[in-house]
Protein: Sugar nucleotide-binding protein
Amino acid sequence: MKLLILDAGHCLSLALAREASRRSDTELVIEQDTDLTPEYLKSVAPDAVIIPPLAHPLSMAPASVTAHADAVDICLDACRAQGVPLVWCVSDQLYEDGCDVLIDEHVVPAPRDDSLRRLVKTGNRIRADYPHHVIVRLGPLFALEGSHAWVNEIIDSLVVGDSVRAAEDVIFCPTSADAVALALVGMLQQLSCGANAWGAYHLAGTEPVSAFTFTSMVRTQLATHLEGRGETVTLGEVKALNHHHDAKLRRVLNCRRVLDVFGVHQKPWRLEVGRLLDAWCLTRDAQEKDSGDGTEGASL
Structure:
């Protein structure tokens, strides 16, 4: 199976590259930009095109959100022309006002924000005009590298003693980019083998949590990892922000359908954070070793 991934520096693109490197049945072609022409698509001849999400469209400039939607529209036209399935990943922030109950796939987002409504318009067009599509709505992604990686920024700030501010009154399900990559490859493998299961799916980590609690847990696990290495580091503090003073905003996706259709289980974000911090420590060890080797070489 050959997949064409757009937006090379995105944390999900990098996660897909790691997942493909572990497999013999998946080939990736990764492009820097999100623009796509029918001619280029014909020359690459992928089995599917994957577009990573804008992780935080609510906090982005409206022009950037509109540009992304325009690029997705162009990709849709190219995919239709060549008969290539389109996979578009979108942020749960499209459910701008949240919901008191779990949000099912059939609930089409109806945001008030104009730029978010532009994204919804693109999603509506995909559903109406092209049967061979998968729209994957995701919780907030986290990873150690790439754009929109989130956790790497938290760790970098805490380690140098900077405080990190995070919302206490918005509840969501943080989602590991690696877990999403694993799930997407598995879903596309099944679709390429004839599974007629196109449409919208929700994919998010287990255990709803606020950004403040998530960030605080990252800090706690980071401190534990550093102490286990024998390091004494004064980490920055986590400070709570409150945007919705009357009640907490819940943005929790119901991910039952992706389990029922594809057998994809959601991964607990706490375990994923721990795994990422293990990897971060290994990288830190390697960097310190390389730095030490360089120092010793310079003194000769």
